[in-house]
Structure formats: C-alpha cells, structure tokens
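Fold this sequence, please.
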Amino acid sequence: MPVLLITGGAGFIGSNLVRRALRDEALTVVTLDLLTYAGHRDNLGDVMQHPRHHFVEGDIADVALVRSMLREHRPIALLNLAAESHVDRSIDDATEFLRTNVLGTHALLDSARRYVDSGDAPDAFRYLQVSTDEVFGSLGSDGYFTETSRFAPNSPYAASKASADHFVRAWGQTYGLPVITTHCSNNYGPFQFPEKLIPLMILNALQHRALPVYGDGLQVRDWIFVEDHCEGLLAAAQRGVAGKTYALGGNSERTNLSLVQTLCDLLDEMAPAAGFSPPVGGFRALINFVKDRPGHDRRYAIDASHASEALDWKPRHTLEDGLRETVRWYLDHPGWSQAVSERVYDRTRLGLGGAK
C-alpha cells in the first residue's frame, strides 16, 4: 500500500491533509510533527488511532529520525508542511523561522536525497515542498502570481519560505532529487490557529472583543478553502511532474475589510442559534481599525489555470460556502478554541516589530 510521509501533519493545513489523504483507502499516512504551539494532537484527535495512520513526534531537522522513518515506511511521497507560518511572529523574531523553514528544510532535503540514492525509495518518489504566494511579494491593482513569478519577499516569514524554495530547486538541479513545489493563496477552514485573520475574527466576535483590522483594511487576498488546497497537494504529489512548480489558488479575492464584514454578517445569522448573542448593532460594531503591519503587502492573487489543467484539479468551494462551513465549525467546537487559547495564545496583537 503506498505511503505518504507528511511533515507538520498536526498543524492546520497538515491535519486537514492527513484526514483528506486517509479518505483514499489505498493510502497509508505517516505524520511527523514537533508539536510546537500551533501543532498539537487535538488537531488529529479523530485519526490518531486510524489503522492506516502512524504518528511520530519529532523534528524534521532530526536527521537520524527522518532517515529511519524513510527506511522503515518507504513512502512514495514526502510532503513538507512543517513550517513557522505567521507573519506577525516573524516580524517580532525571525529566529524560529530560520531554524524550521530554512535549516529544517535543508535537513529534510538531505535525508530525502540519501533515501533516493540508497535505492530504498520507490521509482515514483516525489519530494513536495508546500510554499506560499507570499514569496512573490506584493501585486498592484491588477495581474496575478503564476508559476514563473519573480521572488520578492517582503516579510521575514516570506523570506524564509523563499530561501527554502531555492534550496528545493537546487537539490533538484544539483542532485537530481525529484522535487515539486506548490505555492498557495491564503488558506482558511477548520483547525486554523487563532492568530490568523479568520479564526481570530470569529473567536473575538463571539466574546464581544474588538475585531482588529490592520490599516485601512483594503489589502487584498485570494482565499482557498483548506480542503481544496489539500486536494491540490495530493494531485501534485500523485500527478505532478518532478522539477515543476504549481500555483494553487482559490480564485476568491477579497479585501480584508470585506472579509471581516462577511464574517460578521454570517455570525449575525448563525451565532444566535448556537447560543451566542450579537452585540448591539450586530457584530460589525466590533470592527476596530488599528496600526498597520510593518511591510504589509497590498495584494496577493494567484492564476491557478496551469495547475488546474496539469493536475486535473480545481477548488470546489466558493468563498461564501467555505466561510459558512468555517464559521459553523468554530461554533460547533468551542472546546478546541478554548483549549488552544488557554494553553498558548490569548489573541493579543503581535507583529509590531519588537524583538522578544
């Protein structure tokens, strides 16, 4: 039975990817995760005991561990989702972003290279690097990012991901490692850590806390529902061509302000039925404009037409449907949100540039 090794599989996108992969009865999944603040067992609770799922707590930079896992499980693909991913945290201190996103990726690539060179790897083995559209910097009012867009990272997070992507390309060109890189637009959906915009707005609103919108709120993002992204990742791992890059977008551009307003309107409709009371004037009354993020990119948007054609893939959720499903998940899982908030994050503002 083919095996997928998913690093960072206890995080937001990773845990959704593990679940989606296990829906394919022909696949076994091995998850490797260090269980840092944003990756925890609760995200995998319902699949931790799945007969085709094996979980290992560990670091992608632990070369001995990774090599032993490759020898033991002989995966047909290694999908690297292990990363520090929050821009605001990278502005405050980029050290962990360098350690995990750059040095960790380097260690993982070297382990994969030795796995292939040893002859243990299946002939169809692929190393899949999951990256971001943020490596391309900021767009103007028109145009789109594609697989050939020039790298121009503007945040420490984006710089660390761009560096990792360059190492991936180099390992393909220099050592012949069969690598694939994907660049995705902004993800949203169940199990997203509440430092990110959508869960932060939902959880703050339910407690009648302010909804902080950076600057004028007119920054534009392209949004993709996490399950659609995961299906794109599996398509890239299974049908992608070694050495190629694929841009996975949701074709759903919105300003941050418009997105927050939509969430407020959904909560006005859905929260009372779940026992949460809207504030006077509705949830939009909680919107509060705050100082902008340093170096805040103005617009991201992805042209996913190449990936759609090459991988026979396209997102299935509209933004409206995906947001409704996301709001419903957070309303139905208050225990998950409370546990995360109490353990490691009280939803205070990050990213104003002060080193910790």
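Residues 90 and 195 are 12 Å apart (CA to CA). The mean pLDDT is 95.
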